[in-house]
Description:
This protein is of the alpha/beta class.
Amino acid sequence: xxxxxxxxxxxxxxxxxxxxxxxxxxxxxxxxxxxxxxxxxxxxxxxxxxxxxxxxxxxxxxxxxxxxxxxxxxxxxxxxxxxxxxxxxxxxxxxxxxxxxxxxxxxxxxxxxxxxxxxxxxxxxxxxxxxxxxxxxxxxxxxxxxxxxxxxxxxxxxxxxxxxxxxxxxxxxxxxxxxxxxxxxxxxxxxxxxxxxxxxxxxxxxxxxxxxxxxxxxxxxxxxxxxxxxxxxxxxxxxxxxxxxxxxxxxxxxxxxxxxxxxxxxxxxxxxxxxxxxxxxxxxxxxxxxxxxxx
Length: 295
């Protein structure tokens, strides 16, 4: 019996997400396509791979065995894809770049424009995602993102240290002392609790009066501008805004490191190397903003 790779991909994404909708989002197709494909795959195999439960799709014993084997196949296909792409020296084709909403909003876009002017044969495909995109699975070719611990399978260049400082709107601070324990605070919710700034804040001010929690750094920025309280923000987000002022120095240990990253198998690909070289030089002009010296 043959196992077409497209069928295995559908199976693996349902197994990972536990739902047809989750698999559809991961594969970039609609719900009905995933439903039709997994049913046809099970009919061809003559075995049920999933139990259809009210809470989602759960692997059967046969499904668990299939997942182990299909995952090995996936790793080999991903590895082959990277190695073949890594031999491509052309300065043309599509380059998938992932970054965060804060970076694309605050300083990356002009550099992308200059890159496209220099390399008109390279088409940029942007994946704006605050969660880490998997470069091993070729969900992106290059990442421009802050991280304190890049995965061992990735290689890249350090752009600079991302400075974090406390900010507040002048109208909020009017008549108030800069006593952090007495201020109202705006902070991230559980989805961003892994950030170094969030960890520092929890450990340093466990009894702080938190009045807003947000799952977006832009949510903190805008509520801070509105005068709802103080917030820890990246200096590159806040220093150029007249609606905010620093109420303290950048905090050691609360920041991160901005990296240009790619998978080790892709480092010699022509368009990847061109992007990494160009951005390493171009982004050096933003170092004062990134490291908190522009304010």
